[in-house]
Amino acid sequence: MAITLNTPRAERKTVTDHAVRLDGVSKSFGRPGTGQVVLDTIDLTVAPGEFVTLLGASGCGKSTLLNLVAGLDEPSAGTIDVPGGRPALMFQEHALFPWLTAGKNIELALKLRGLPRSERRQEAERLLELVRLKGTHGKRVHELSGGMRQRVALARALAQKSRLLLMDEPFAALDAITRDVLHEELTRVWEETGLSVLFVTHNVREAVRLAQRVVLLSSRPGRVVREWDVDIPQPRRIEDAHVSALSVEITDQLRKEIRRHGQH
Asked: What does the record give under GO molecular function (predicted)?
């Protein structure tokens, strides 16, 4: 097994054909031979600037896969290559420090990145403006709505200046209207920054609404069973006819996987 997080040398640019590549990645928990296999021989590549959504039933290993790519855990077998350095990770919960302001949460990430103190305030303001939260630098977390907190969390992730953004159901706890607004904002930020995104979700329509490619995992253990290229121009909406049609097709396949593994 191997995890490679290669940071390009400052004096030259490294051109690669992938933002992350998983080759034969498996993950088991417990003792060898008796443990539970969560992921089995995953082959997956995300291209530079590509937006990929990872879809599957509960317990299929989506979050485990994201943790492996983030370097929070190691695979039991296979290799993971992230040539742009450590990815940024955004969780379902915003995980902001409540004793810090919105801006200071972002500045902390900038400090950890090594940005000089004299530059942090200006960069935090720029990132807040990028996620359309201009003027909220001094706001405490409890003064922000759920959607605003997730925008700050997104700005903090962007502050890490990674070329790969991992998102683990970041909008699942939000109401439908707020979630729809944040879909639009995330799409805009992705297009403006050129980031590669690997986005985990249970929501089929969300997967189709956002992605250039949808990857479906089977359950028990998780394997890549099918992929769909989403050739629908952005901007998209959840209720668009083409989004709906592809969502129905993917949902039918997901239901087959759930029935095949005896899940209800």
From this structure: ATP binding; ATP hydrolysis activity
End position of a domain, from candidates 140, 161, 182: 161
Domain that holds residue 121: 97-161
CA distance 241 to 246: 9
Q: Is 129 exposed, middle or buried (0-12, 13-18, 19+ CB in 10 A)?
A: middle
How many domains is the chain partitioned into structurally? 2
pLDDT for 263 equals 52
* Bond before 83 cis per omega within 30 degrees: no
Token reading at 134: 């201009």
Residue carrying structure tokens 């990028």 = 130
What mean pLDDT value characterizes the chain? 90
Output phi, psi for 88, to 5 deg: -90, 145
Give all strands of the β-sheet with 224-229 in edge-to-edge order. Answer: 88-90, 164-168, 196-201, 51-55, 213-217, 224-229
**Is residue 123 within 8 Å of 110, Cβ to Cβ?**
yes
E-assigned strands of the chain?
A: 2-5, 20-29, 36-46, 51-55, 77-82, 88-90, 164-168, 196-201, 213-217, 224-229
CA angle 93-96-100, nearest 5°? 160
Burial class (CB within 10 angstroms; exposed 0-12, middle 13-18, buried 19+) of 157: buried
Domain identity same for 83 and 135: no
Between strands 20-29 and 36-46, the pairing is antiparallel
Indicate whether 254 and 172 sit together in one domain: yes
Q: Are residues 67 and 172 in the same domain?
A: yes
Model-level pTM greater than 0.85?
yes
